[in-house]
Design brief:
Radius of gyration: 15 Å
Structural class: alpha/beta
Strand order of the largest sheet: 2-1-3-5-4-6
Largest sheet: 6 strands, mixed
Length: about 180
């Protein structure tokens, strides 16, 4: 398997803090970050079907960046090593393009890979941020916007050392 890494920003920019993943990957692709050549960064937004097909291109590591409600204070960052692909039960109709959330994509990944002769990513990380507001509106709340630069650093640490443990990040929660 290749050492390719896919970083995917997930979220709806029209629902406030749900746009965290999209904004983080936008900043990540800006000048000055020096991403390694084996790293591909994409803005998936709400296109879960696109993520499913993108993963069939063969990646060793997947980093999902998304708003992640886990009960912390808004702006709290989480680094989560996701379960193995295929070990999650899909939520709702799997082939409904409007219901292809990241967990549904990961639940379907083994089936998609088996049908195409590809392999799922060996490691899957989620860089998540506790949202403060998920109501209609464009723009991140102040605590979530303030967390974006640290999320960019977390992603850079992961893509520069995908086989090792990520560096500890002050003021952030790490969970499995």
């Amino acid at each position: 398997m290749s050492s390719r890494v896919l970083v995917a920003g997930i979220g709806n920019v029209f629902l406030g803090d749900d746009g965290f993943g999209v904004e983080t990957v936008r900043r990540l692709t800006g000048p000055g970050h020096g991403l390694p050549e084996h790293v591909e960064v994409v803005d998936i937004g709400v296109r879960g079907v696109h993520l499913a097909y993108q993963l069939l291109d063969g990646y060793d590591t997947l980093v999902l960046v998304d708003a992640t409600a886990r009960g912390g204070a808004p702006g709290t960052l989480y680094l989560i090593e996701a379960a193995e692909p295929g070990s999650l039960a899909p939520q709702g109709p799997v082939l409904d393009g409007h219901q292809m959330s990241p967990d549904a994509v990961l639940a379907l990944l083994d089936t998609l890979c088996a049908g195409t002769g590809t392999s799922p990513p060996r490691r899957i990380w989620v860089v998540g941020c506790e949202p403060g507001c998920l109501e209609e509106g464009i723009g991140l709340s102040a605590p979530v916007a303030a967390a974006v630069p640290e999320a960019v650093r977390m992603v850079l640490d992961l893509v520069r050392n995908p086989d090792g443990e990520p560096l500890d990040h002050e003021n952030n929660a790490t969970a499995n």
